[in-house]
Write a structure and sequence with these properties.
alpha+beta; three-stranded antiparallel β-sheet; 34% strand; rod-shaped
C-alpha cells in the first residue's frame, strides 16, 4: 500500500500519478499525500485524490494491434517483399508479430 507506507515530513507533500493500462481500458489517478495537524493529537496522514480519468476505448490490446500494424508495414516495405501480399494476410505470421 503505497500511501500508507509513506514517511512524510511535516509541511511536505508528495504528489503521485498512478497509471493502470488494462487489456481493454486505461486509468490514471493523481493523488497528494500530506500530514495534517489534528487538535489535541499528533499529525495524521491525509490522502487527497486530485484527479482521475479513464478511457474505455484504449488499452493494452489496442497498443498490441497498433504495434502489429506498424511492424507489418515496415516488413512489407522491405525491397525483397515488393509485389508480395501483406504479411497481415498470413494468419500465422500475424500471430507471431
Amino acid at each position: 500500500m503505497f500511501g500508507i507506507d509513506q514517511k512524510l515530513e511535516a509541511n511536505k507533500t508528495l504528489t503521485v500519478l498512478f497509471y493502470n493500462m488494462g487489456g481493454m481500458d486505461a486509468e490514471a489517478t493523481v493523488v497528494r499525500y500530506s500530514l495534517v495537524d489534528i487538535p489535541n493529537k499528533k499529525t495524521a496522514p491525509y490522502i487527497e485524490i486530485l484527479a482521475e480519468a479513464s478511457r474505455k476505448d484504449i488499452g493494452a490490446t489496442d497498443v498490441d494491434l497498433a504495434l502489429t500494424r506498424l511492424l507489418a508495414e515496415k516488413f512489407d516495405a522491405l525491397p525483397e517483399r515488393e509485389g508480395q501480399p501483406s504479411v497481415l494476410t498470413n494468419v500465422r505470421a500475424t500471430k507471431r508479430l
